[in-house]
UniProtKB/TrEMBL annotation:
Native source organism of the sequence: Apaloderma vittatum
Primary location: endoplasmic reticulum
Protein name: Dolichyldiphosphatase
EC number: 3.6.1.43
Biological process (GO), any one: protein N-linked glycosylation
Subcellular compartments: Endoplasmic reticulum membrane
Pathway involvement of the protein, from the record: Protein modification; protein glycosylation
Upper taxonomic lineage: Eukaryota, Metazoa, Chordata, Craniata, Vertebrata
Reaction(s) this enzyme catalyzes, per UniProt: a di-trans,poly-cis-dolichyl diphosphate + H2O = a di-trans,poly-cis-dolichyl phosphate + phosphate + H(+)
Superkingdom of source: Eukaryota
Topology within the bilayer: Multi-pass membrane protein
Keyword terms of this UniProt record: Endoplasmic reticulum, Hydrolase, Membrane, Transmembrane, Transmembrane helix
Length: 213
């Protein structure tokens, strides 16, 4: 009968939904930066597993949950995952998808709103781990710090090391076979795809109208 607990339990499934969303996005978009983002999340999880097994700090109520994958709780994997995702997305929105000086108000507004939503979800998921007795406040706090630091490091690594290699990787025969592409030089991929699709649709409609005449 604890509605708050049920809601927070559903929110704690956020990492699963994010992974499913990434896999779906990669299948349909096949973009190198998205693949790199997912690789960063996987690396972040590996670091979390290593830290847990090195620190070996137990969960606050080990007997309360029989379905946890590990008895160690420092740092919280959910907190680390969500803060990695939120901080990396924040950096991507404001540094990767940079706007020109004449950016429209609505273009900037949706960025700010989305950033607030990302931080809010990360805070709620982190809080849920304490509320549901999976972690202590310190385990959640250190998880959030670790995830945020990992996000900044991975974003810098992607921008400075991987991004210059993306054009070469996209030209590999295997990349061409799987239609893997590089959109690093396009500042706003959403706007680019919208304008290209609209122009192509108008062009095809014009050609179709010519044939019908």
């Amino acid at each position: 009968g604890d509605f708050s607990g049920q809601l927070l339990a559903y929110l704690s499934l956020g990492p699963i939904f994010i992974i499913v969303g990434f896999v779906t996005l990669i299948i349909f978009k096949r973009e190198l930066h998205t693949i790199s983002f997912l690789g960063g999340l996987a690396f972040n999880e590996g670091v979390n597993w290593l830290m847990k097994n090195v620190i070996q700090e137990p969960r606050p109520c080990e007997e309360a949950h029989s379905t946890v994958t590990t008895k160690y709780g420092m740092p919280s994997s959910h907190s680390q995952f969500m803060w990695f995702f939120s901080v990396y997305s924040f950096l991507f929105l404001y540094l990767r998808m940079h706007q020109t000086n004449n950016a429209r108000f609505l273009d900037l507004l949706w960025r700010h709103v989305l950033s607030i939503c990302l931080v809010t979800v990360a805070l709620l998921v982190s809080y849920s781990r304490v509320y549901l007795l999976y972690h202590t406040w310190s385990q959640v706090l250190y998880g959030g710090v670790a995830g945020s630091v990992m996000a900044v490091v991975w974003f810098g690594f992607t921008q400075e090391v991987l991004t210059p290699l993306f054009p070469r990787i996209a030209a590999w025969p295997i990349s061409e076979f799987f239609l893997i592409r590089d959109t690093s030089l396009i500042p706003n991929i959403l706007w680019f795809e919208y304008t290209v699709t609209r122009a192509e649709a108008r062009n095809r409609q014009r050609k179709l109208g010519t044939k019908l005449q």
